[in-house]
């Protein structure tokens, strides 16, 4: 699995999916050993967290793919089957048995995406987040005068010359988002990686201070320490008369209520944008370059089935569980008497005969190994 910056949705994020390493190739005659299972690479967006889901539903973190190019080995492929010469012994110099390739590892995993950013823009629908992002960065998000225009988070880079700031617009937080109104508050998980929050408030929305409080309540309800991060309040649409009148007083109240900086801007006229760049720069000071070192992680091996032979009798059928014997069975030519003889000897070596006898197998009984059924002789 590789983290890549291109956005591709291969799996439903947040839902469990079963991932399997590929099976190995079958062994063959003339000593041909089967190929090992070929690697399969799945690309995921940078910021994908990979968790294993246990049978009890409990999740354990396997890797947090936050560096571009990071890789996680999730499931090992099966080893190739032994060819016939792998079955040669001192008394059997013309082996005809071979082995099927082993199954690859299989595990249930959950992917969860948490996008990286310096500052996230959070706010009510129509507050002017996308318009601001377009005015400050290279991003060109959709802008419209209806609510919930932005349904997926949008990245934008503020170019400050000597450095960049990575902004992320989150889909709008309606009142009651934390209890599922509007688009809900699930997108706030992306704010968990952000270094700071910018509350974007519509300056023409009447009670601007209450509008700020409403958004802040949703962020607080989400929890996860988001309200403890550095923050800034941005009042938008300062070009509109409803916003312009009394703006200074509103900003003063906001600073008192929020205990952080508050600035008024107009993305339409450009007023206040230079000051805002300065604010963003001090909100998210340059970070030491942690990028550029992709990590390679390996998930712990999936616990293999014990190689022991076990037999259970179900409805008169003797069912054999033995990973090694199960890999030989599909390759046996049962019409070949020599193959049958060698199989018998091999089942003895693997402890299958002993386990069958312990369960009282007799001539004429049906024995099932892997998918194959044998009439016991
Ligand atoms: N006059 C004026 N209108 C603005 C300004 N900024 C945004 N608008 C208008 O406000 C409306 C909503 O703007 P968006 O940028 O789409 O708002 P948003 O917060 O991204 O909205 P959602 O994605 O739906 O949450 C659009 O009609 C914009 O043209 C501004 O500075 N001045
Ligand atoms: Mg938007």
Structure notes:
By secondary structure, the protein is an alpha/beta fold. It has three domains: 2-114, Distorted Sandwich (Spo0b-associated Gtp-binding Protein, Chain: A); 119-283, Rossmann fold; 310-375, 2-Layer Sandwich (GMP Synthetase, Chain A, domain 3), CATH 3.30.300.350. The chain contains eight helices and 18 strands. The chain has helices at residues 129-136, 208-222, 241-244, 247-258, 273-283, 323-328, 337-349, 352-358; strands spanning 2-4, 16-20, 43-45, 48-53, 59-65, 71-73, 106-113, 119-123, 154-159, 164-169, 196-202, 231-236, 261-264, 296-298, 310-314, 317-321, 366-369, 372-375. The strands form five sheets. It has a six-stranded mixed beta sheet with strand order 9-10-8-11-12-13, sandwiched between helices. Strand 15 (310-314) and strand 16 form a beta hairpin. Helix 2 runs parallel beside helix 4. Residues 5-14 have low confidence and may be disordered. It binds guanosine-5'-triphosphate (GTP) and magnesium ion (MG). Magnesium ion (MG) is lined by residues 129-130, 141, 149-150, 169.
